[in-house]
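Example record

The entry below shows one chain as it appears in the dataset: sequence first, then structure tokens.
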Amino acid sequence: MKGRGLQVSEFLYYASFVPGMEGVVEEIVRGRLPEAHIRKLSEGAILFQSSCTYDRLNFFCFNNIFAVISLIENPPADTALEQHMRRVCAGGERNRIIGENVQRIRSFRIVTFRENKPVPVPEKLKRDAEAAIARQSALRVSRALPDTEFWFLYRREGYSLFMKRLTKHPVSEKTRFRGELSPQLAYMLCRMSEPKHTDTVADPFCGYGSILAERMKHFPLQRFYAFDIDEAALGRARKKIPPKLKDACTVQRAEFHTLPGLLPEESLDAIITDPPWGMYAGTEIPLEQFYRDMIAVFTGLLKKDGLIILLSAREDILKNAAPDLEIVQTLPVLVSGKKARVFKFKKIR
């Protein structure tokens, strides 16, 4: 490995996250682990070195976290994975990460990715690598339903990784409802709202409650209001309220334009939301008018210097729909493979 050497007491982690949120993730890592050394910060991924063990990391912004067994800098792009796998087969990758597994981990499979896309490798080489890992780990191979995974990953930034996956999220893109935000993205949107213990926060398009859940579980607040027109989604959102905070949360069926009759004027410190990207459900309101009306309602409900954190695919409309708001930050992101943008607005008058 080039650069600072890995000390015996340190661990090397690779983590993936929503592409476009690199700056937010860097702030989170530096704030959570001041001693950490960020080795690489790439689109949708971070490689960092820390003395913190995995059970104490407590990161909620990552899609997945891996323990890195070895890193190869600047390998040939077309043969990087095969080169790395041959090193494992030769026995040159002995590492306690391979052998140390909790009792529930009994099986594994190998995953091979090049530039974030799964790619095949020669079958014999894969079987040889499986045998080498099985010898060191005492785990059996299960390509269908493994308890853990060993990844060989090549990044276009010019490095190859051999690593063990540490996370297994119960909520994935395949199991989420249509339009439901991932917990990891919802967490980062909430963090961008500069949370304080005195905050009164609202999500006017709460859907299944991803933002509600992340803000109430991981950040301070005084009160949270969640609204949506889909009663079935609201039912699931209610189930995500932490039991100890039920009295601090109101979940109610409501159209966004009725909110001034439900909340006092200038009563909110922050609005964090993911409004419809297309035509508003059940109406024929053009998107331009919908966004203008929405921003006007939000502005009236915000306190001076209050913040709006909003996810949308329509930058052109939003920039013209918020005359009383300052655009503090915009971040281009990928959400379920679709281009979008996170906007951070501040009420200036």
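Notes for this example: The CA atoms of residues 69 and 163 lie 5 Å apart. Confidence is low (pLDDT under 50) at residues 1-8.
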